[in-house]
Task: structure prediction
Amino acid sequence: MIEPKTKKALLAIVLVLWLATMPALQAIYHNPGYHGELAQWNPNVREGGTLAIMAMLGGFRNVAANMLWLQSDKYWHQGGRGWWKMLPLLRTITQLDPHFVAAWDTLSWHCAWNLHSDASEADKPKWIQAGVDVLREGIKNNPDKYDLYSSLAWLYHERVKDYNRAVPIWQKVLTFKDAPVTQGHMLAHAYENTWQIDKAMEVWRWCVRRKSDDMVARRALKWLTAHKDDRAYLITLWERDNKVRKSRGLPAMPRPDQVKDKP
Amino acid sequence: MRSIKSIATNMVGEALNRLIFQVILIFGVVFMVAGFFFTYLDPGEEGKMLKDLGLTTLTIFGMLMAIFMAVSTITPEVERRTIYCLIAKPVKRHYFFLGKFLGSVVILGIACLVMGLVLVLALYVKEQVWSLELLSAVGLTFVSLSIMSALVMTLSTVASPMLAVVGGFVFWALGYAQGFMHQLAAHADNPTSRGILESLGSLAPNLQVFDIRAAMVDQVYIPPSYYSWLGIYAVMYLVVVLVIGIIAFNQKQL
Result:
């Protein structure tokens, strides 16, 4: 049996240590390794139904996110109304697992392309903006991965056709060591589309330096060397691009002969 | 110290031969390998699904093992009256308690290692990459399981085995709902309910902070300082629970 004196001392130690766990927890919460968003209850998770709520409380959010991912795939194949049902599911997946890059990417693409095409004319711009917002939120949760920057740049480049906004994001993508050389191709195309031909050639050369058997970059360099001063040909390309822009209700790009390479 | 070691070694030997340990471990490994065959359901994200399923399987089966193993450490010894032989010898009660705890920690370590290695091997077969980074998630799961084991052992000294099992599951749920509890407390208008929620939150171990499964699967960097703080927290919480357990076990009428 423990003596009453020893027992009191032990209980005092217990109390002190128990109180000390609180500042230790605070230090954990403020550590960059702590992923606070995972410990927080997010009301949006209710959209995912009982499974998501149970998963959040039981510590099985990742498995639940995978299950919802499967469910969203089922809705995708249904098309039509299924597309709209995918939206809350994908949203819940990103809440349950904010580091699930493919889910952010799919959600953004779903908003900016599929739901945009299914929405009324008045609502269309809203869905493109939703796609952009989703990617920005995803980037905030995954700033050390190039994938979502790349998707955002692609969205500006291909969907919004705002090449000037895509350029700095492609540049950011290339600061990631694991970004493949094809991301450089995209930056070069963005420069070409803003008629900054010299810069585009510089990027194509960089691609060749990085990967000597990059035939796409070699062909592009050859082509640009041959056509960069052929303004008539560039204007034909510009007219073709503007036709697409007009059909999407986007503003026209300036004529190539009115644009000079920015310093 | 020698008596603690002997009790722990004896406990490990006994537990390895116990059916419940073998069944839980076999089911855990089977579930982990079964996950391998379900990855086709998640096109493009097969690796992620396998890792998620594997680590969750390890947590669930590990937790079941921690709870049931901890309950069956002290009570059966009392029921079979084998404890009297030990206590009659110069073995102090707290040595007995600590020996049993150390034994369960070793068993949990073996189970985590086996399941963790099976997962890494399954991933290697699937992706031809050694995903050794997952072992840090396995390690932290092991720490959280050790905390749960100490907690349930302590509960079993003052409550019936059934109540200790139920208590174990309640603490498990509370441990993962800490973020939710704090948010609820922050939004409570009544200071009494806020106090109750806060106290409940701080009484239960915060298992959520040990859960780095998502970060590991998604290859998010965790700084070493995070592990250090977790270590400090785990040691402090373990000491608190074990000392309470020792006091309660010493008070127990045998």
Q: What stands out?
A: The two ends of chain A are 84 Å apart (CA to CA).
